[in-house]
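Running co-folding for zinc ion.
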Amino acid sequence: MYFQTKRGYIRMSLLPCPECGNPVSTKAFSCPKCGNPLGSGTKGDSGKRGGITFWGVVGAVIVAILIMAFD
Ligand SMILES: [Zn+2]
């Protein structure tokens, strides 16, 4: 997807929908074509295994950096 601006076009990061292959913005919560919920927008999905979320990983990395920095 391209957005036209005064300076030209800006390309957004798109990922193909795993269900229908429709290119979907990485910031979208679900596929606009088939409605398939995407990973970045789903929260508390009890149907999936593993409890490590993106922000959980980010938080762990930040804590690790802080621990090393103040050691
Ligand atoms: Zn889709």
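Result summary
The chain has one helix and four strands.
The pocket of zinc ion is lined by residues 17, 19-20, 22, 31, 33-34, 36 (CB under 6 Å).
Job closed.
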